[in-house]
Amino acid sequence: MELLMLDVRFAVRSLRKNLGFTAVAVVTIALGIGATTAIFSVTNTVLLRPLPYRSPEELVLVWNRLENANLARTLVSGPDFLDYRNETTMFEGFAGAFAIDGTITGDGRAEQIMVGWSTGNLFKVLGVTPILGRDFNAEDGTPIDPQVFLDPNATIPPGALILSHGLWQRRFGSDPNVLGRSIQVDGQPSFIVGVLPADFRIYLPIDAGMPTNVDMWRVIPIDFSTNPRDAEWLTVVARLKKGVTVERAQAEMDALAQRLREQYQHNANEGMRIVLNSMHRDVVEHARPVLMALLGAVGFVLLIACANVANLLLVRATSREREIAVRAAMGGDRGRIVRQLLTESVVLAVCGAAVGLVLAWAGIQILVAMSPGNLPRVENVVIDGTVLLFAAVATVVAALVFGTAPALKATSPNLVGALKERGSDAGGVRGNKLRTALVVSEVALSLVLLIGAGLMLRSFAKLQQVEPGFDPENVLTLSVPLPLFGYRDPNQRADFFVRLRQRVEALPGVADVGGVSPLPLSGGDQYLVGSYGRVGVSEEEWTSNKADYRAVLPGYYKAMRTQVVAGRTLTEADNQEGSPYVVVVDRKLSERTWPDDDPIGRQLQIERFDVEGFDIERVTAQVVGVVEPVNSQTLAAAGRETIYFPYRFFPWWPVSLTVRATANPTALINLIRNEVEAMDPEVPIANVRLMEEYVSDAMAQTRFTLTLTVVFAVLALVLASIGLYGVISYSVRQRTQEIGVRMAFGAQEGNIVRLVLKQGLALALGGVGVGLVAAFLLTRMVSSLLFGVTATDPVTFLGIPLLLIGVASIASYLPARRAMRVDPVRALQGK
Known about the structure:
The chain is α+β, with helices and mostly antiparallel strands. It contains 26 helices and 23 strands. β4 and β5 form a beta hairpin. The longest helix is centred in the middle third of the chain and has 37 residues.
């Protein structure tokens, strides 16, 4: 330990003598360590850290796969849920849930909240205990008869509520006496029985259709045995028994799926299978490719930084050859000298890591602020013990990577030459093979990053050119959640929106008003997928045809500027009680169903949820119009066929108004709020956003990946250029006498410039060659992140190398200019 401390003190003194070198090396290391640590901290939180539940490795998500409909995974119906719970032996428990906008009144202004509805055992399955009050019990889940629910004069018994920690703080001021308090939720008297921990979130994948920020939880008041088997609406999470693997449980579910296909015609027609996935795997699967790509990119930056510092150390070692030779001549052991030089590298790395952690902390704040909304748990990203351990390991590895080769090179036997003050290098680039290899590696790595950034940039440009099927400019969107229990009459709900639309349309500054459920690009489409087919279609074709269902208010297509291909759109008359069933379909569905015929006036069978019978019924509707397809789920894919029907067809879905303004749409917000309050002060408006924001959010993940990739690529390019400049500059200094001789014998400035540029371009071309091969292999791994371009896009693979060669030429030209100014006389004199 004493010897180590002696080495450290000597290293500190040595580095202090050359503060310029030390500062450059520390900053270079800090950039590499800081960027790597910041990305790793996000990766650690999102991908590696277990979900915050009891024994999270035992939790699985349960999906149905409908092979005949080509749906990889869907939600689960009530009867299927009961079968899974009652006919399996390898599970500790099953829980189902869904979420929908709700309204809370009392104790302040009416407010829209996200209400999670679940089976009473959800928190037991997850292993979560309320910090205040109790969990749900058997009495909280008493089913409500559908006929009682539809009777506006019937009394609905009060429901039990468990609040999220955030709602408890925001709405009730963290009042510890909140338990037992009665409030109105969706027009139903309800009482609070518990408050959840501050860190509780319901983490689910995007296609589960459930957000993370659920404000309160209630028990689903439905007898699942009365549900139709073809109505899939439950997100199901299950806990395996101790020691049971996912593979064993999957085998049991495979056998159960086979029995259900034999027992129920619907399951057979759908080709239904049951799929179990680790809950953690499903939650992070969409984020994994992005974060792994970024982690690989930032790893390249760290390697380039190490190569740069190694080059600096090699140059410094050359200037210290006489010092090292004297120590060796006086009996200094080579291993002892190598250890001393490695200690200097470690001290440099530690100083760089210290600065890097500061940069990492700042970088994390930026990453969290710019991260897409679907990146799970990003709000929990911190520099914790795991991240510090990673930074420590990265620091040590970096020190060994950039310190070992220079240390060995510096102590290579050449005592006589060094003591005569003659450098051991042969001069020029050829005589510095290690520095040459490092620079070639830097150029190659930076080329890979630049090509990755180029592909992402091309993808983003293509994504921005996508026509989503509507014009988002000047469109204001907002939801008006009618209380579920306060507006139990379906006609009452539909009439509310008819009147509201008319009132908003009369406001100054409003061009057009419509409404839709759900809003394109807003998520939550998982629940709204149904079958369709021509009259008399076979069951096989019926089950294989799946379309997005959209309930719309008149004026929607005009407000969104959706192009009408044929026929007409839905009108006020179509949305009246007793009107015949009519639908508008998109062009994709029309071309698939009637490829050679005019669809207008044709009959189409679709699904409709019969509230009174609490069943899915098949009804016949007339096609009155065809519109262009709309990108409803993502800009990167057109999605399924779409069927639009009047909102009165099923008025239980929450509707979003789409208001096109003549000028500034945000100026309409207060005017619309006043109209809603005039109609019913207990009804809030919420989710007030511009349609352009939804389009922007749809590009958020691509924009996030692009921004970071470009930052890392530019950083890599700068570091590689500095490394190339350093090598060529050092080579020029070594060859000063040679250049002087050439000039004394008549060499022109142009000849000298070409000589130096040739050396620089040779290094750059070597790096480009290696980098192209690496990029061709590695970019295939990120093909899933690209849109509109291939992983071997020729424009990128031709343009980026030219850009890099141009930058390398500039980096080589600067030392070349210095070479032109060499005084032959002074050079020949060794000055």
